[in-house]
Each structure stands twice: as structure tokens, then as C-alpha cells.
Amino acid sequence: MNKAKRPSAKADKALFDAACKGDLPTVRERIAAGANVNAGTKDQYPPLCIAAAFGHLEVVRELTRAGADANQIAQVRRETFPSSPLILAIKNGHFEVAQELVRLGARLELETHPGRNAATEAAFIAIKCN
């Protein structure tokens, strides 16, 4: 009897580390093992947020194929300003990743808190660049 792997409810440290490093083979291995692609903890963002923040485009694609939520709002360590994968990609200048997230369904208008969304973050980045 071949049972399908069910995603774990817990965050998977190995998946988090692989997303951080851009280690695509390990990301695939952890997904195949049933890692929860949407789980973070109070001390770490979900894997998609981390991959987006570090600009790991292929890892972003793999995580979203596995069901990672491109519109997930993550708050770590009770930070004042929660974030999303799209906002983290924009803040860190990974615009190709940001474009891919939008293509994959990330919404520009998704507010992580009142008045803050990916469009406002992009505007703040543009102002800083000038």
C-alpha cells in the first residue's frame, strides 16, 4: 500500500535552511518527505518568504508548485510590520522574483498592515533610489 505523504503541520528546519541557501535539491527532498511549505514559527518566516527575500527564483517556483501561499502574511518575533513573500522580494531588490510571484498570483494590493502593500513598498524603494 503506497500512502501519499501528508504535509506536516510543523515548520521543517531543513526546508527553511534549504530555502535560505537556495538549495533546490534539498527543497525538493523535503517537499517529497511531506514538509509543510507554508509553516513558519514565531522566530522564522515560512520558506517562501525566505526564498523570496534571498532572491532564490527556482526555489520560489518549486515552493509555489508545492502549494506555498504567495499571499501569506508572515509576522516574526511580533514585529511591527508583518510581511509577505512579494514585499520581501521587493525590499531586497529581487525584482525578477517579485515579477514571478505576481505571475504566480501574489497580489500587489494585499495589505500586510493598514496602508502597506507591495505597491507602496515598491514606491518607497523607487524614492530611495532617486
Structure description:
By secondary structure, the protein is an all-alpha fold. Helix content is 48%, strand content 0%. It has a single domain (13-129), classed as Serine Threonine Protein Phosphatase 5, Tetratricopeptide repeat (Alpha Horseshoe), CATH 1.25.40.20. It has helices at 13-21, 24-32, 47-54, 57-65, 85-91, 95-103, 118-129. α3 (47-54) packs parallel to α5 (85-91). The N and C termini lie far apart (61 Å).
Q: How can the largest sheet be summarized?
A: none
Q: Using the alpha-carbon principal axes, give the shape.
A: globular
CATH architecture: Alpha Horseshoe
CATH topology assignment: Serine Threonine Protein Phosphatase 5, Tetratricopeptide repeat
Q: Report Rg.
A: 15 Å
Per CATH, the class reads Mainly Alpha
Number of domains: 1
Proportion in helices: 40-55%
Offer a quick outline of the entry.
The protein has 130 residues and is mostly helical. It is built from 7 helices and no strands.
